[in-house]
Write a structure and sequence with these properties.
This protein is of the alpha/beta class and 439 residues long. It is built from 11 helices and 15 strands. About 10% of the residues have low confidence.
């Protein structure tokens, strides 16, 4: 079911991201007093009484970007306008009509779009009369709102839903899988998302740090809905410049939390860095299913074979030993569909429920082996009586044992590695919990 698309358009710093967050009821877009924080099209789904629409936040039209990305941002805005069924034309009630507002009005009229005028920063009713002058932009009376204070939020939502009252009802397809792209700056995350989706959905530039928000992109593959989450590139904390980068880092780590499968991008043209190692540790500690995507392989394959590179990564990123490797050239969309197929396989593994008899048979096999990883403690040798699976994604197993303190890290790691080789979950993380068995 194709959802109606509502795009928020306006010049920089009129409160577009604040409005998206207010209507969504959660922090999705980064909100900063700095003009030009939003660059990509950031979107979210909003529903009421079985009616839904996709709300899209865009960069400020006419921004002079500090990283010389103004043309890219404008292109994203134009694409949002082309795909929009309705535009929320946002202005600043305190500033009145400015030349850039008139330029945007001309652009919207040229595209013959359905428009609702929204005058933001009208924090009290005393400020409402000032919005009268916006009617000369040609879109009727502008609705006075305050995105910061949620003033007239429900009125605006009712106006939007009234526009789509005759549209098809029903909840949009639930994504079968959420994939997060993470990695250091300029590793090719946005290029990979665009290659998956088959369109210029997020800004791609040689400038490091182009993506700031975590951008959710919904797309279809084999009749199933998938969400790709493009995240900001990570760099060392002591090199983060200002609050925008800090919020971007927080969004990236949150995206890892909510992803079903993480695509951890490594730039094949550069040595593995401290940032890569730190990200790998974070992914492993969160017990996230992961594919290590070695991108820009076309520029490195003459220098190293895939087997050598695999050995190199296993040595430097030991916590992700379980994660399969994929070699891609995102700029040419090489192996990108294979990565999606592999992600589907990993998701299948991490959502596997292992029958209890099969699980305990695997533990019996492990117990019968000569285990040098186990150590005798004051209470004797570690004993496993039986085990059961209590969760998926990550697969979480609960062992009932004689003394949990005897199950040291090395022994647990040994058990997990053996379980991976015996059970059909060889490429995903396993959480192993121990509880004292009450005999």
């Amino acid at each position: 079911m194709a959802l109606p698309v509502v795009a928020i358009i306006g010049r920089p710093n009129v409160g577009k991201s604040s409005l998206l967050n207010a209507l969504a009821g959660q922090m999705i877009s980064i909100v900063e007093p700095t003009a030009g924080v939003t660059r990509d099209r950031v979107s979210t789904l909003i529903g009421k009484d079985d009616h839904y629409f996709e709300l899209v936040d865009t960069g400020g039209y006419g921004i002079v970007d500090s990283d010389l990305l103004s043309d890219h941002i404008e292109q994203q805005i134009l694409q949002a306008i082309e795909s929009a069924d309705l535009v929320l034309f946002m202005v600043d009630n305190r500033d009145g009509v400015v030349p850039l507002d008139e330029t945007i009005a001309q652009l919207l009229r040229k595209n013959n779009l359905d428009v609702i005028g929204v005058a933001n920063k009208a924090d009290t009713a005393k400020m409402f009369p000032a919005a009268g002058e916006f009617s000369r932009l040609g879109f009727g009376e502008f609705l006075c709102i305050s995105a910061k204070n949620n003033l007239n939020k429900s009125v605006l939502l009712d106006k939007i839903f009234d526009k789509f009252s005759s549209s098809e009802r029903g909840e949009p397809a639930t994504p079968v899988m959420k994939i997060a792209m993470v990695g250091k700056r300029n590793a090719g995350k946005s290029t990979l998302v665009n290659a998956m989706v088959g369109s210029e959905r997020v800004i791609v530039s040689e400038t490091p740090g182009t993506t700031r928000d975590a951008v959710d992109v919904r797309f279809e593959k084999d009749g199933k809905t998938i969400v790709a989450i493009d995240t900001a590139g990570i760099r060392k904390k002591n090199k983060m410049s200002g609050s925008i980068e800090f919020y971007s880092y927080v969004r990236a780590t949150r995206s890892i939390h909510r992803a079903d499968v993480v695509l951890f991008l490594i730039d094949a043209t550069l040595p593995v860095s401290q940032v890569d190692k730190k990200l790998a540790r974070f992914i492993a500690e969160e017990h996230k299913s992961c594919i290590i995507v070695v991108n820009k392989w076309d520029l490195a394959k003459e220098k190293a074979a895939t087997d050598d590179y695999e050995e190199y990564l296993t040595k430097l990123l030991p916590g992700l030993k379980y994660a399969p490797l994929a070699f891609t050239t995102a700029t040419q969309a090489k192996n990108v569909q294979s990565v999606l197929d592999l992600a589907a396989e990993i998701f299948k593994q991490t959502t596997t429920w292992i029958p209890t008899p099969k699980l305990n048979k695997a533990f019996e096999t492990i117990k019968q082996e000569n285990v040098t990883a186990a150590k005798r403690g004051k209470r004797g040798w570690p004993k496993i009586y039986y085990a059961t699976q209590i969760a998926i994604n990550p697969i979480t197993l609960l062992m009932f044992v004689n003394a949990p303190e005897l199950f040291e890290e090395n022994y647990r790691r040994f058990i997990i590695n053996r379980l991976r080789s015996i059970l059909p979950v060889e490429e995903v993380p396993i959480r192993l919990l121990a509880r004292r068995h009450r005999e």
